[in-house]
Amino acid sequence: MDETHKQDLYNRLRTIEGHVRGVQRMVAEDVYCMDILKQTRAIQRALQRLDSLILANHLNTCVTTALRSDDDTERERVLHELMQVFDTNQRS
Amino acid sequence: MDETHKQDLYNRLRTIEGHVRGVQRMVAEDVYCMDILKQTRAIQRALQRLDSLILANHLNTCVTTALRSDDDTERERVLHELMQVFDTNQRS
Amino acid sequence: MDETHKQDLYNRLRTIEGHVRGVQRMVAEDVYCMDILKQTRAIQRALQRLDSLILANHLNTCVTTALRSDDDTERERVLHELMQVFDTNQRS
Amino acid sequence: MDETHKQDLYNRLRTIEGHVRGVQRMVAEDVYCMDILKQTRAIQRALQRLDSLILANHLNTCVTTALRSDDDTERERVLHELMQVFDTNQRS
Lengths: 92, 92, 92, 92
What we know:
The structure is a homotetramer.
Chain A: H1 3-28, H2 33-68, H3 72-91
Helix pairs in contact in A: 1-2, 2-3
């Protein structure tokens, strides 16, 4: 991962951490439960955007390198891993 | 929300916060991106379990009270809100 | 379910059936696989809209009746069932 | 797509079509709405398995060929398309 990409992920994770602490306060302060639910879902969407960024970078680096190499084992490993990401994604 | 339920949600949110910080360290330490992805998804699953607990409590308290009341506006509001939870859920 | 609601569900299911047959033709005619994928997903979205309509009707009829009744067993059954719908939904 | 893969997809789509017709009968026969919902969700899971098979085949054929070629435009197109599949998937 290059530095700009790493910094972007790191900053997003800091924002998500702040958001999680905000929800802790909402619980402590007895905010209406459906409003808390809206926030926990907003956090999930932020994590999904993070996943997209990680995956886009992964496709452009690791996957491209592996598929262009002559190492059949590595190519299969990378494709198998991608399928797992896709399948878990469908269920999560 | 009763105290046991509140405490449970709060503890789970603290665990999630710790998990998010763990992923920040993984990014800083250049851990393989697909391993980071596995962790961000584990966090999403933990948030989904939290959502289930919030919703189960909501059904047993607010929704039950509203549907048993004679306030038609309140009943419609609660059912409309439930449908929104369900629909957003399908898309997130 | 009242007749209008039943007819609406039935018509949607007929459209979905036609859509599935259209995808069979695409497979037989060697259409580009990513274009087939777009169609199978469009079918899934149509099924999700169907689910929303079924659930909205369920909330306004069965759930409302059950929660307003004095039959505790029935109320618990209906709420338990709703939670299952929500939880499966999160994973599918 | 090779013939075995095509035949597999086609057979699955025929099964799915039969399943959709089965749900039409359930609606016509006034089956309990939550039992209908279980079936529409089973159909969605069958479609997701179909998507997985299509995508696995796509990765092993089109994506591998494109990434191994020297055509930068084609490589970018294929990766962009994969990201769209992933992102829509997250939301559907």
